[in-house]
């Protein structure tokens, strides 16, 4: 699973990393300046030692090294200790040039520093050496160096903490309005959309809130229009559908009392009957979907097995002239359910299975509150077919609205729809 870093943490860590990089960089720069300053002081003292040597030593006595304070002055390059000459690999070429060499022990730890300084004046060139080690450094120098390191460390830590505090306050200042915007967006519904958005401190966030409110208001208005159209249209269709159903029943009764008619007339009446019945089920489904709430639906004791047998009998006309066998496998089960919605859902599933089965077996199996309907599916049959499209989608929406577990799958050329009316 890919870890998703929030925007707040991303910005905070970016600023913190930048601040720590700056602090570390300036700390290293300060340490480098401190070392360079000590080197410059050492070079200045070595230069003074060389000048004192040339000024106070007669020319005829400048053949032997002289020690002035802690500095050793060599009149010739060959007089410099061999170990130092090997490490330097050649005498310094410029007057005033200082070379620093680190001496390490067998463990690789730095134990001492050798400084080599070349000084030239009036054609006279001397070489000054100076060694610094823990044994030669005085307690005061060690104390000052330790204090300088501690001060540098304290300043670096204080700067890092100060920058971290500033970054935290900045993110807190920015994240509070953003969190309020998120909470306000999450709380939007049909009633709060009409109110003006609150002030989120920053103009950009206020503009974003206006855009969110405008977009959701447009979507809500579209949904309201579709909802009203669906509800009104479905309601208005009930009357003509009822009229058609009544007249179809009247035609059937008239046919019983009239001379026998040809097969074409009977087929016309049967087609009218089937089409009106389909329109009736579809209209009832749309009406139930357009209800504002599913919590106050009237419920009653429903014999689920008897209801399934009745629905299968009503839909049997869809299997006329088809070599399809229907297997009804049910068990007595009485549940407290909204009968009309159960009839719509189960009727849609059974009608869908009958309508799209051309041969083979349709199995209607019921165990307790669980209904399973399976029917063979043709290879050429697509998911966008009317039966597998609108009817099943409406069924899925009804089940989701009433929190009934619904599943529709296809496996081995067999489509299976399962719904659990118990939740």
Low-confidence parts: 380-389
What distance lies between the first and last C-alpha atoms, to the nearest angstrom? 31 Å
Largest β sheet strand count, sense and barrel closure:
5 strands, antiparallel
Number of strands: 12
Radius of gyration, in angstroms, nearest whole number:
48 Å
Secondary-structure element order, as H and E? HEEHEEEHHHEHEEHEEHEE
Side-by-side strand order of the widest sheet = 1-2-5-4-3
| DSSP helix fraction | 40-55%
Mean pLDDT: 79
What gross morphology would you assign? rod-shaped
**Overall tally of domains:** 3
Structural classification? alpha+beta
**Alpha plus pi helix count:** 8
Q: What is the strand content?
A: 15-25%
Molecular structure report:
The chain is of the alpha+beta class. The chain has 3 domains: 7-157, no CATH class; 188-292, Orthogonal Bundle (Helix Hairpins); 296-420, Heat Shock Protein 90 (2-Layer Sandwich). It is 55% helix and 18% strand. The protein contains 8 helices and 12 strands. It has helices at residues 7-56, 82-88, 139-186, 203-257, 263-289, 304-314, 339-355, 386-401; strands at 66-68, 71-74, 98-104, 110-121, 124-132, 300-303, 324-329, 334-337, 360-367, 370-376, 405-411, 414-420. Strands 1-2-5-4-3 form a 5-stranded antiparallel sheet, with helices on both faces. A 5-stranded mixed sheet has the order 7-9-10-12-11. The longest helix is centred in the middle third of the chain and has 55 residues, at 203-257. The chain is rod-shaped, with a radius of gyration of 48 Å. Mean pLDDT is 79; it is low at 380-389.
In short:
By secondary structure, the chain is an alpha+beta fold.
């Amino acid at each position: 699973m890919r870890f998703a870093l929030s925007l707040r943490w991303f910005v905070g860590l970016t600023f913190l990393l930048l601040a720590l990089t700056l602090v570390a960089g300036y700390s290293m720069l300060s340490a480098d300046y401190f070392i360079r300053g000590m080197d410059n002081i050492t070079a200045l003292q070595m230069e003074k030692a060389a000048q004192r040597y040339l000024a106070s030593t007669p020319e005829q006595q400048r053949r032997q090294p002289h020690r002035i304070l802690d500095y050793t002055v060599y009149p010739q390059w060959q007089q410099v200790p061999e170990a130092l000459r090997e490490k330097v690999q050649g005498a310094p070429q410029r007057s005033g040039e200082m070379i620093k060499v680190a001496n390490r022990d067998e463990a690789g730890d730095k134990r001492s520093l050798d400084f080599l300084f070349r000084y030239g004046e009036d054609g006279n060139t001397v070489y000054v050496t100076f060694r610094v080690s823990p044994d030669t450094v005085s307690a005061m120098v060690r104390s000052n160096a330790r204090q300088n390191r501690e001060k540098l460390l304290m300043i670096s830590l204080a700067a890092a903490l100060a920058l971290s505090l500033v970054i935290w306050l900045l993110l807190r200042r920015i994240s509070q309005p953003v969190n309020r915007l998120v909470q306000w967006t999450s709380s939007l519904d049909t009633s709060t959309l009409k109110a003006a958005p609150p002030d989120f401190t920053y103009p950009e966030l206020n503009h974003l809130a206006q855009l969110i409110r405008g977009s959701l208001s447009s979507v809500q208005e579209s949904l309201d229009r579709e909802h009203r159209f669906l509800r009104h249209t479905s309601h208005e269709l009930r009357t003509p559908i009822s009229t058609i159903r009544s007249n179809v029943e009247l035609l059937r009764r008239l046919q019983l009392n009239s001379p026998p008619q040809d097969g074409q007339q009977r087929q016309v009446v049967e087609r009218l009957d089937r089409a009106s019945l389909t329109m009736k089920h579809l209209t009832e489904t749309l009406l139930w979907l357009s209800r504002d709430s599913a919590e106050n639906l009237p419920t009653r004791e429903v014999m689920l097995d008897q209801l399934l047998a009745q629905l299968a009998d009503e839909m049997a006309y869809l299997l006329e002239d088809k070599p399809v066998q229907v297997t009804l496998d049910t068990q007595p089960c009485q549940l407290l359910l909204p009968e009309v919605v159960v009839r719509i859902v189960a009727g849609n599933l059974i009608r869908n299975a009958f309508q799209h089965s051309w041969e083979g077996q349709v199995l209607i199996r019921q165990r307790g509150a669980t209904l399973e309907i399976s029917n063979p599916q043709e290879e050429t049959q697509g998911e966008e077919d009317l039966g597998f499209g609108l009817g099943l989608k409406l069924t899925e929406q009804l089940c989701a609205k009433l929190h009934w577990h619904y599943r529709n799958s296809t496996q081995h050329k067999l489509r299976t729809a399962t719904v659990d009316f118990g939740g």
